[in-house]
């Protein structure tokens, strides 16, 4: 149990120390909101975080076997919650691999978490909906999501295309 705690603490520390690319969609601290709350950051490139969410959702939902997808971009990570199509006969692992392949080079993030667990999907979906509706998302809520997903899901490392 102590090893898991150390592992989770090191993952959180890595997330907090990782810099964000200006071209990526990110959530950043806003002085306009209450302390500890976050709001979406408008990108310097054409489009914004809402466009990035929609682009990723379209890409993931086009994969055979995916009924719905929800996305949260945080720090250097992408959290994707999946609802499988009822007719999908493959394994969760093969579906996650398809998502990983689809995401290679699409987003400028390095760590990908793909979740098929219904409870975690619902948490990701709830946060994603709030971001899409331009509602602030609290730092505590994002860190809780990172911890919960990090304990249950092994992340993929995405390779950036030049």
TrEMBL record:
InterPro entries: Spore_lipoprot_YhcN/YlaJ-like (IPR019076). Residues 1-25 form the signal peptide. Pfam families: Spore_YhcN_YlaJ. Keywords: Lipoprotein, Signal. It comes from the Bacteria. This is YhcN/YlaJ family sporulation lipoprotein.
